[in-house]
Amino acid sequence: MFGDYFYNLLRDNEIDSFENTANGGEKDVNGIQFRRIYFTYDYNISSKFSSRFRFEADQKSTTSNNKVGVYVKDAYLKWRNIFNGSDFIFGIQPTPAFEISEEIWGHRFLEKTIMDLRGIVSSRDIAVSLKGKLNSDGTIKYWLMFGNGAGNKPELDKYNRYYAHLQFTPFENFTTTIYGDIKVRPGVNDPKNVDKKLPSNDITYALFIGYKQRENFSIGIEGFLHQRQNGMIDINELMNRNGLGFSAFGSYNINKEFSIASRYDFFDPNIDKNTTGDLRNWMLFSFNYKPDEKVTISPNIIYETYQKSTDGRTFEPSLTLRITFFYTFL
Questions:
Q1: What phi, psi does 229 have (nearest 5°)?
Q2: 212 pairs with which residues across the strands?
Q3: What is the pLDDT of residues 169-204, one digit of tens each?
Q4: 276 phi and psi, to 5 degrees?
Q5: Which residues contact 120 (CB under 8 A, 6 or more apart)?
Q6: Are 14 and 44 in contact (CB under 8 A)?
Q7: CA distances to 108, 121, 123, 132, 141 from 83, in Å
Q8: How far is CA 232 from CA 28, 30, 242, in A?
Q9: How far apart are CA 225 and CA 207, in angstroms?
Q10: Residues of the chain by 3-state class (helix, strand, coil), percent to 5
Q11: What is the pLDDT of residues 119-138, one digit of tens each?
């Protein structure tokens, strides 16, 4: 479970209407929130089969009477070693996009990693996947997935998402990953030929490099390019819309009780030179105190700045102060 006492010290209220804003809520809004509650049950059916069932509750998933909602986060069956070195997984399961970077980041209770935060790839999909190692010592691993592309939601159309992930760990504590996916979408009409359909798929590429000494420190950098085919019009001609993101983070354990963490994200959902006003710089700094192995209390700051808009408008930065509580109960 993790949640916070938060206070939105600075805010330009116009910015909340913008796409992909990481820091929601108006200026001076403050209170106590639960951002995530998990209840997980893992069961080993046999030496070959295992399963996971997980509930999630958070304040963004509300019920019809506006109370904190609960939904199924994970529900999958794993067939271990379906063939040598590989597992087969069926059901609601994590996607390959940022599981490794999130593990190296190690501070999910403070914030999602950049592709999750900006909604580039869902953290879950209803899918089938194969994952395992490509060599005997496990320094090269793969992960292939075919899913609905609708996250945890039921399938309602014929369009799917295809994922591929490669992880390379040449030596202890260091890892790098290459990721790509294509989300198939309905075609769009060609402005020059109304009888012709053009592809409008989402294609994502990502690279991550990280180093983590679990008891001492971690560092990581992550970048992605997200492309919507024929996603924008330029003088009656369709062209691709490209979004770009970059994240760099680090943490240091002062001792068993105290640690610090910081992160910087750059995000531009449309890098076209004629499109401005959507670029943002996001920063986080935290000081973490662990009075118990399963409890973390973290005073932290989130600061975000915004690019001047196409018509010349400028926006005040966002500043949120938080005290985050993170604890496990098993």
A1: -65, 130
A2: 218
A3: 999 999 999 999 999 999 998 888 878 889 999 999
A4: -130, 170
A5: 97, 114, 204, 224, 226, 243, 245
A6: no
A7: 33, 29, 26, 10, 14
A8: 37, 38, 10
A9: 9
A10: 5, 60, 35
A11: 999 999 999 999 999 999 99
* Encoded tokens for 124: 């879950």
Residue 301 corresponds to which tokens in the numbers above?
């700051």
Q: Judging by beta carbons within 10 Å of its beta carbon (0-12, 13-18, 19+), is residue 321 exposed, middle or buried?
A: middle
Q: In angstroms, what CA-CA distances link 327 with 99, 103, 114? A: 20, 17, 23
How much is the pTM? 0.92
> Which residues, including other chains, have CB under 8 Å from residue 113's CB and lie 6 or more apart?
98, 101, 102, 105, 222, 247
The one-character DSSP state at 110 is T
What tokens appear for 189 in the block? 């009409």
**CB-CB contact of 208 with 101 (8 Å):** yes
User: Residue 172's CB: how many other CB atoms inside 10 A?
Assistant: 8
Task: Check the CA dihedral 104-109-111-113 and report its sign.
Answer: positive
CB count, 10 Å around CB of 310?
11
**Which amino acid is present at 209?**
I
Cβ contact 2:324 at 8 Å: yes
